[in-house]
Specification:
three-stranded antiparallel beta sheet; Alpha-Beta Plaits; single chain; globular; 136 residues
Amino acid sequence: MNTLTRTESLDEAYLVQSELRAAGIESFIPEENHAYLIWSHHLAIGWIRIQVMAEDLEGGRSILANLRAEREKTRHPCPDCGSKDSHWYSRWRAIRLIPMIPIGVPLPISPSSESLRCANCGTSWLPVDHAEQETE
């Protein structure tokens, strides 16, 4: 089996896997059980592989390219520089993992502590549509 891509979360891996399965391509997530059972370790590792058979690699790459193109359409532009090169960021991620070392349990921190961060200029912001959902 060959690695098609790596994802940051098990949910994202399942999304890619379901798209592959819909196209008739069988895939395997080697870290699936590890990320599911010991999810706090997955936060520290930050990636999950999706593997396909060698003969399905090119078909998988085209499906992945289509998924990325769809995701690019929904990206929020940076309010300062206009770049669409942004990602979700939690300033508490590193602090959250500190208690995991002695006791094995990360601190519970609300997902609302996350915001978008521009990879181009470093600006952090919460998109308007996301902010409206949190106030409801």
